[in-house]
Specification:
Rossmann fold
């Protein structure tokens, strides 16, 4: 058996394992897992495009809600030399898997300190860094509106002026909930969408639909204006540049 076949089989086995892990975690708590399958390659590429757009410039990058690491692997492959990636994941089992991913990733051989895994809520994350790019995989429509607003405000605080936030939202979730959920759940879901629309109107630069994802998803890019002064309470430590 040649090296390519061995590597290909290993990748397929890894994807199958991730798929089953997502199903198990969704069965435990779909509210915080937020998906029944890992993100597709197309979704991961759109979410991480702002990292590649910076070329060879060293960056500070944050990923929130990384799950089993399907987007993390794409981020690692796109990190320029000297860049740092912080990954925050609230699910302990996912966080453990992410640590294995970092330890075993061939591009991080001898440089695993460039990627740090934080088992935490993103609202409580305090790394002492601000970020050029933030990639969010959090299932916003499963949260309370006030929590979504808290998270989005925290993202904007953590972003460098001119920095980019990317996140995705599954299509059709409001209609699915209207058919299956209580009226209170439908109202909560609509209120979360209203919160996100407010940020989109203020900061959005682009939106795409990834039809090949399961389920199809919209990917949003939001940018913190470069001309807006940092809030007085914002962290101001230097980025990895």
């Amino acid at each position: 058996m040649d090296d390519w076949t061995t590597s290909h089989d290993r990748v397929l086995a890894q994807r199958n394992a991730e798929g089953w892990m997502f199903l198990f975690e969704a069965a435990r708590d779909l509210r915080t897992t937020g998906a029944i399958a890992p993100s597709s390659k197309a979704l991961a590429r759109l979410l991480t495009d702002p990292v590649q757009e910076h070329g060879t410039q060293p960056l500070n990058v944050l990923e929130a809600g990384a799950g089993t690491g399907s987007v993390t692997r794409t981020l690692v492959s796109r990190l320029s030399p000297g860049s740092r990636l912080d990954v925050v994941e609230a699910n302990a089992r996912f966080a453990s898997r992410l640590r294995h991913l970092v330890r075993d990733h061939p591009r991080l051989a001898g440089a695993s300190e460039r990627v740090r895994i934080h088992h935490s809520l993103v609202e409580q994350l305090d790394t002492g860094h601000s970020y050029d790019v933030i990639v969010s995989g959090l299932p916003f429509t499963n949260f309370a509106p006030a929590q979504v607003e808290t998270i989005m405000d925290r993202y904007m605080e953590l972003l460098q002026p001119g920095g980019t936030l990317t996140y995705f939202a599954y299509r059709g979730t409001r209609y699915a909930r209207a058919l299956t959920a209580s009226r209170a759940e439908v109202r909560r879901h609509r209120a979360v969408e209203d919160v996100l629309v407010g940020y989109q109107r203020q900061y959005a630069t682009a939106c795409w639909t990834v039809w090949s994802n399961l389920p199809p998803a919209n990917v949003w890019h939001l940018r913190r204006p470069a001309s807006v002064p940092a809030p007085a309470h914002e962290i101001t430590v230097g980025a990895a540049r």
